[in-house]
Design brief:
eight-stranded mixed β-sheet, two-stranded antiparallel ribbon, about 725 residues, alpha+beta, 31 helices, Mab-21_HhH/H2TH-like, 12 strands, Mab-21-like HhH/H2TH-like domain-containing protein
């Protein structure tokens, strides 16, 4: 699936020349084509034959465009020919310039001269195609100043796990992400407390700690060696190497006891704290034009530690004694300080890049994306991310493309360090083609990605939103576009709630309403209450209307739910003695079942089955879990006083009824397993496994199911234990 898009990238970059420089002579346009073709080196991911076919097609149609009308003739035999038309109806700009990049962030009503997409239209499309809460974005781990350990890289700041939720029936992308996550190494660094690193001019000879001199001579930027003072005796746990330049510290050995204490982490390092101000004073003193990073954030970072980890540069002359300066905790603090619009912008940036480069042997990592993102954020006010998401995103992509073409991406804190120095020319050429394709056809790239993840409304939404781009480009009048976007937002809301994505829908409605308020125009914006209520009135499912109204009331203290639901004594929340999940508390229990826990449990089980068929886990999960709770409460009630019954026959009858009641849990837990399997997620199943194992003791015939459940959870040993019990 990825190689197919790489082919499309070549098509887009060459095919767009049909709508660039149309007033030039045929010879001049042929020259442009050859120059562009020369930058797209064929290889494993971009076949030579494919490039030649596209170039031949473009050259052929250059000749067809010699008439004064400059009408573009598109050959029906070439797939994706719609990419060669311009949404704005105007010629596209051939290459990005400093001026065009600046306009991206300064003019929120700009029609992007590179893609032909108006920035407001791009913003609304991204917002509707990738709603904020449909992107898994765990955020940074809590920062502890004196913690003796931390995770390395993007695991610490949470950026590694940023993915677009897969809502497709096949769950292919979820399976892909899970497989990719299992292959990824989890690295943690344990910090030594008895080793200090400093400059030779700041040596404290009276210190009880081992003091090492920071030596960055003959090392690449961002790397160093740690040298002992003359006459200093290393401690027993310190590995050293004597060279002609002195005695240097090597990597510490990781003890077996340490490995046993941290079982969930595959690789451990022992690192050393290094004052941030010691190596990054230039970053701290550098003046920034706008509000990122804030002065308070810079002060906090300046007082922090970096970490030295035993890792050499790939071109190191002395890899055994080289240490890398790691900024994981500081990056984590910066990521945590981002505003919500900034975090959303970074998440979109990462989803776009990773989904188009997963197939590459050498691809950009989170550290590359964070570096260019932080650098870009310094070049415009933070508030622009909220008012002009499309422009800011294109600016960041252009910034990355410039770095790739220059073969130099500076480290955010150590700008002399090139984060691309391990990439080959072919690697960078391929990345240039992919990143440039995102830049020139951002909407089609986004549509391509969301369709893979099951957002089937993408194509129709894109076509509909882009219908009036030519009119907007000429008039820059936004009111008519906003009215159209509102209707498309309501349609997206209906689609998402059908699958139970109530919280993302509520957040999406609020975000789009904010965009309508930010849009320049003459009319007064509609109140959010009316805007939200308008979406509910168009929803066919009663459950969607009631749940969304409840979520609105919960947040704003209103009573919108009264328009769609009248609370009664038959509601689930009234029938049960404990607090019921807000998403299902409104359900009406049939009159004949409301006073009986067992009947309520069966009612909820049936509800869970129905919602599972709709792939609505937001309702299917709490209904089955509440059904399980009903049976557990019923079992407790039946157990009271049983041991005091003297009548053996009566006692046996009660115990048999209790066993029959307990047996109902078998199908309930199997339903829980099916829900987890539906989305290839350990939850909710993993939360019930202890109870399932206890149930299996009373019902050994469940052993096969328990075996399957543990196999799904990746617990092979447990699975084998129950496999041996299967008769």
């Amino acid at each position: 699936m990825y190689v197919a898009f790489t082919d499309l990238s070549g098509e887009a970059l060459l095919g767009r020349l049909l709508v660039c420089s149309t007033d030039e002579t045929l010879e001049a346009r042929e020259k442009i084509l050859k120059e562009k073709l020369s930058t797209m080196h064929p290889g494993k991911y971009i076949p030579q034959s494919e490039l030649e076919n596209i170039a031949g097609f473009v050259s052929h149609h250059f000749m067809k465009q010699q008439s004064a009308t400059h009408q573009i003739v598109v050959d029906d035999h070439l797939p994706h020919s719609e990419l060669f038309n311009t949404c704005s109806g105007q010629d596209l700009q051939l290459d990005e310039t400093e001026d065009s990049m600046q306009c991206l962030i300064e003019d929120p009503l700009l029609t992007d001269p590179i893609s032909g997409i108006p920035l407001p239209h791009l913003t609304i499309l991204i917002t509707l195609l990738m709603p904020t809460m449909m992107i898994t974005n765990p955020g940074a781990l809590p920062y502890g100043y004196n913690l003796p350990f931390h995770l390395l890289g993007s695991l610490q700041d949470g950026s590694k796990e940023i993915t677009l939720n897969d809502i497709s029936k096949s769950q292919k992308m979820t399976a892909f992400y899970n497989k990719h996550t299992l292959k990824s190494r989890k690295e943690i660094v344990i910090l030594k407390h008895d080793v200090r690193v400093t400059d030779s001019s700041l040596i404290d000879h009276d210190s009880s700690s081992t003091i090492l001199c920071f030596d960055d001579s003959n090392t690449s930027p961002g790397y160093c060696r740690l040298k002992y003072l003359d006459g200093q005796v290393p401690k027993s746990d310190q590995n050293t190497l004597q060279t002609e330049h002195g005695l240097f510290l090597r990597a510490f050995d990781v003890s077996t006891a340490l490995l046993e204490n941290i079982p969930d982490v595959e690789i451990q390092n022992i690192g050393i704290r290094l004052n941030f101000c010691f190596v990054c004073n230039e970053w701290y003193t550098r003046r920034t034009r706008f509000d990122f990073p804030s002065w308070d954030l810079k002060l906090t970072i300046f007082a922090m530690y970096c970490t030295l980890i035993p890792k050499a540069h790939h071109q190191s002359q002395s890899p055994a004694i080289e240490w890398k300066i790691d900024f994981s905790r500081i990056n984590s603090l910066i990521m945590d300080s981002l505003t919500r619009p900034q975090r959303y912008g970074f998440a979109i940036f990462k989803v776009l890049l990773e989904n188009l480069t997963f197939h590459l042997e050498k691809r950009l990592k989170s550290k590359h994306l964070k570096a260019v993102f932080f650098l870009a954020c310094e070049e415009f006010p933070t508030c622009f991310w909220k008012s002009n998401l499309g422009g800011c995103l294109l600016f960041v992509i252009s910034k990355l493309l410039i770095c790739l073409k220059k073969r130099f991406l500076p480290h955010y804190f150590i700008p002399q360090r090139n984060l691309l120095d391990s990439f080959s020319t072919n690697d960078l050429d391929t990345l240039c083609v992919i990143v440039e394709s995102i830049r020139v056809i951002p909407v089609h790239v986004t549509q391509f990605i969301v369709e893979k993840h099951g957002y089937s409304y993408g194509p129709n939404l894109v076509r509909s939103v882009l219908t009036n781009t030519k009119l907007f480009t000429n008039s820059r009048e936004l009111n008519s576009s906003v009215d159209h976007w509102i209707s498309k937002t309501y349609g997206t809301a209906r689609y998402l709630t059908r699958f139970g994505y109530y919280f993302p829908t509520s957040e999406l409605l609020e975000k789009v309403h904010d965009l309508t308020k930010l849009s320049p125009g003459n009319r007064a914006p509609e109140s959010f209450y009316d805007f939200f209520n308008g979406a509910l009135q168009l929803m066919k499912q009663r459950s969607s209307r009631v749940i969304l109204a409840k979520l609105y009331d919960e947040k704003f203290g209103t009573a919108m739910v009264n328009k769609y639901f009248t609370d009664s004594e038959q509601s689930l929340g009234k029938c049960l003695s404990w607090d019921v999940d807000l998403l299902i508390s409104w359900l009406d229990v049939p009159a004949g079942k409301s006073g009986d826990l067992i009947s309520i449990a069966e009612f909820l089980y049936d509800q869970s089955l129905r919602e599972k068929e709709k792939r609505n886990l937001s309702l299917s999960t709490p209904t089955i879990e509440t059904a399980i709770k009903c049976i557990k409460y019923a079992l407790q009630e039946d157990s009271i006083g049983v041991e005091n019954i003297n009548d053996t026959e009566l006692k046996d009858e009660i115990l048999a009824q209790k066993r029959e009641l307990k047996a109902m849990l078998k199908k309930y837990y199997i339903q829980v397993y099916h829900l987890s399997k539906l989305i290839l997620c350990f939850s909710p199943l993993i939360n019930h496994m202890p109870d399932i194992e206890d149930l299996c003791k009373d019902f050994p015939e469940m052993s096969l199911w328990v075996c399957v459940m543990f196999r799904f959870l990746g617990q092979r040993e447990k699975s084998q234990v129950y496999a041996r019990k299967v008769k």
